[in-house]
Amino acid sequence: MSLLCSEARSEGFAFLERLVRDWERGTNRFTGAGEALVGAFVGMQLVGVAGLNREPYDPAPARARLRHLYVLKAFRRQGGARALVTHLVEAARPSFGEIRLHTETDDAAAFYERMGFQPSTLPTATHVRLLRRDGRHA
Asked: Beta strands 98-101 and 127-130: pairing type?
C-alpha cells in the first residue's frame, strides 16, 4: 500500500493517505452493510485499490459512495480499474440503488462515464450511477 500512497501523493492525490489513516484509526474499515474495500493484484503486488461505503455526505439508506480508486501508473489501461469498479458495482446491487463519487480529473471523469456513471451537478458528487434491484441499469 505504501507504493500506491507514494505514487498517488506524487500525482497530487491525498485520498490514499486518508484511506490508510482512517483504516488505522478505525474510522473507516469498510465493514458496514454493503461496504467493501478491494484490491487489484499482479502476482503478489497490490497495483490498485477501490472502496465502497454508505454515502457519508448526503446519507440515505440506499445510497453508496465509490471512493479511493487508484491504480499504479505502470498498470493503467490494462483493465484493473475497470475490474475494481465492476466488482464494486455488482457488490453494491443487493444493498444500494445509487452510487455516487467525486473525481478531480477529466481522464477519471471519462473513465467513470464509460463505466455507466452520469455527470452530476450535486454539490457532493461529480458522478452518479443508478442501480436497479433487478441488476439492470436504471
From this structure: antiparallel
Strands annotated E in 2-137: 36-42, 45-54, 63-71, 98-101, 118-119, 127-130
Q: State the residue for C-alpha cell 455507466.
A: 116
CATH superfamily of the domain spanning 2-130: Gcn5-related N-acetyltransferase (GNAT) (3.40.630.30)
Q: Where do the structural domains in the chain lie, given as residue ranges? A: 2-130
CB 52 within 8 A of CB 19: no
* pLDDT for 134 beyond 90: no
For residue 64, which phi and psi values (nearest 5 degrees)? Answer: -120, 165
**pLDDT digit string, tens, across residues 85-127:** 999 999 999 999 999 999 999 999 999 999 999 999 999 999 9
Quote the pTM value.
Answer: 0.90
